[in-house]
Amino acid sequence: xxxxxxxxxxxxxxxxxxxxxxxxxxxxxxxxxxxxxxxxxxxxxxxxxxxxxxxxxxxxxxxxxxxxxxxxxxxxxxxxxxxxxxxxxxxxxxxxxxxxxxxxxxxxxxxxxxxxxxxxxxxxxxxxxxxxxxxxxxxxxxxxxxxxxxxxxxxxxxxxxxxxxxxxxxxxxxxxxxxxxxxxxxxxxxxxxxxxxxxxxxxxxxxxxxxxxxxxxxxxxxxxxxxxxxxxxxxxxxxxxxxxxxxxxxxxxxxxxxxxxxxxxxxxxxxxxxxxxxxxxxxxxxxxxxxxx
Length: 293
Prior knowledge:
Blueprint: E1 9-15, H1 22-30, E2 37-43, H2 50-55, E3 62-66, H3 75-83, E4 88-91, E5 97-98, H4 102-112, E6 118-127, E7 132-135, H5 146-153, E8 162-164, H6 165-171, H7 181-191, E9 195-207, H8 221-230, H9 237-247, H10 249-254, H11 258-270, H12 276-292
Parallel strand pairs: 1-2, 1-4, 2-3, 6-9
Antiparallel strand pairs: 4-8, 5-9, 6-7, 6-8
Helix pairs in contact: 8-9, 9-11, 11-12
């Protein structure tokens, strides 16, 4: 299929100690059917051989930026956004990959939905050592807040994002958010009146084999609490407690905060964030995980 657009698309890739997987990630970008790309790798002070692997790839579209100190946060993405010169910006984590036509399909979709301040996201393929699962969701309903959508649908992933460079540079990622960074970026975009459009195709492979998303995989439920409480005023009580049930309670229990988790389940039931059966399963989880910990 011949491309009918020639807009420059900047791809921002933050990385840290990904020497084993970043080449596969970069090849999936550089081999896209859409060729007018600028690929910006921002290395968060890796101490392995990541820099050598990136610099060994000879492609004029590839740019490498190395930070002097590890930032443990969103700084690499923001540096990539500031360095981008394309009309559009897409994001990918350095242990994930794209299908060959990801940019071509998504750019055409964005051109069809001709909005200036817009973020497009797609479905994903979740991959681990044993299986691959395609995850497709519905589009947003008319007037639905993006955070309500995320809480109800449970999946909006940064590696699927493409947005106008203008809105990305205006918004950036929060420098203080350590967990749910993808979701917080959507929240910040909504504050800048961005529109969100969903392409119902799985075009990104989200790899769970190499310690993907290490921060969100730990037991720091306080980081989830801090984030959701910072935006609490913009979501319903039902969705607030739904978020807590799905993103906080398990790590609370595993961190010996069983009573707090039980209180959340009670409030969730009161606000219809869980069904009676869901409440019963939550109580059972509190009991079982306590003994497994």
